[in-house]
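hey so u asked for the seq, here:
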Amino acid sequence: MGEALSRAIDVIVETELAVGGAGAAVAVFLGGELVHHRGYGLANVELGVPVEADTVFPICSISKPITAVLVMMLAEEGLLDLDAPVRRYLPTFDAAHDAITLRHLLTHTSGLKNYNAGERFLRHEGRLALPSAERLAFLLSQPTEFASGERYAYCNTGYVLLGFVIESVTGRRFHEVLRESVFEPCGMGQSLLLDEHTIIPKRASGYELGKRGLQNAWYQALTWRGGAGGIASTVGDLIRWTEALETGRLIGAESRAEMLRPVTLNDGSTFDYGLGWGTGAYQGQGAYLHTGGGFGYSGELLRFPDAGATVVLLTNLYRFPFHQVGMAIARQVLGLPEPVSRPQPLSEARAYAGLYRSADGVEFELHAAEGGVVGLVYCGDHLFHGRDDVEMVYRFSEPGPAGFRTVHVNGPLFPPFPYHRAA
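ran it, structure tokens below
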């Protein structure tokens, strides 16, 4: 299986890299062995430097589960209480936010506004390497958009704040705690928390695709990313960390199980994100994962514990189809079938076309054409997948005279979001 699997992975990755010229690295751990560990494309396009298996990439939001595990380690030591108000550890937090706990930060249910979502931040504050105190003050000033625990809304603010919480209870800098408590014990010799000045051997340059093709990525000051997205690592180091988590060298079995339990919201419903991990199942295989992307980089870490399999993909191209590629690799590793599809006549496709809107006001519009719905591929039984991302699934229900009233949209490991016909 080894060489055949590696050849199949090579084809999957190289097909996507042919477009942009940037690079990627992939590691696959299966049955207690590293069965695939390779680099592809270029780490630096201008200098023609190739990606190697040990090339270092900023891992963006794959930093979140690492931060979350460190929080759990400190909770096991009695230094943190997940259900305590954040203000216990960061006293300058507004007293009006006392309902927000560490657990809310970990599960993206705090209601805090995402600090880096606005255009002003991207063009002003985010490009400045501000002192730590100023960054913390900016984060603590973010308003709330809903009551804590009311719903899941992905939020970088919470995870950067967790880095400051860790500093508060340990009396040490976040990067020091990461190095001494995580990286060194796990043998992650090429992993570190990014800053503006450190020279990092074998670090890949970051790229994005613009109107004129490949270009250098938009700049953001590295110190802003912290526990939300500030770690750099290699695919091999992430395998080492995942195996340390799996074998109980970082946290106990009870803490690990708690991390992988879907969050329960105020109304009693659940969402398939735990403490720093997306959780769920894929074609009958239990799984947990995290993705990451931004400012020239993207990637995915997938773990299938029942199969003893881990897939890590890191790239230096923002908006590289990392999830589509990662899941294609996972299907090869696990021997799972490929998605099926069939053409659909225009007359049939019209029933699915229209404007759809979520309860939060997010909209998307679908158009019918000969052969099917534009951008989607029909699989039968009112089920579609994305043409450019087979892991995005669209299931239509409630047919009516104007067409289907509802479509549930979800990825392979997350619950479906309902959208209803708007017109």
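Residues 346-421 form one domain. The chain has two domains: 7-334, 346-421.
lmk if thats what u needed
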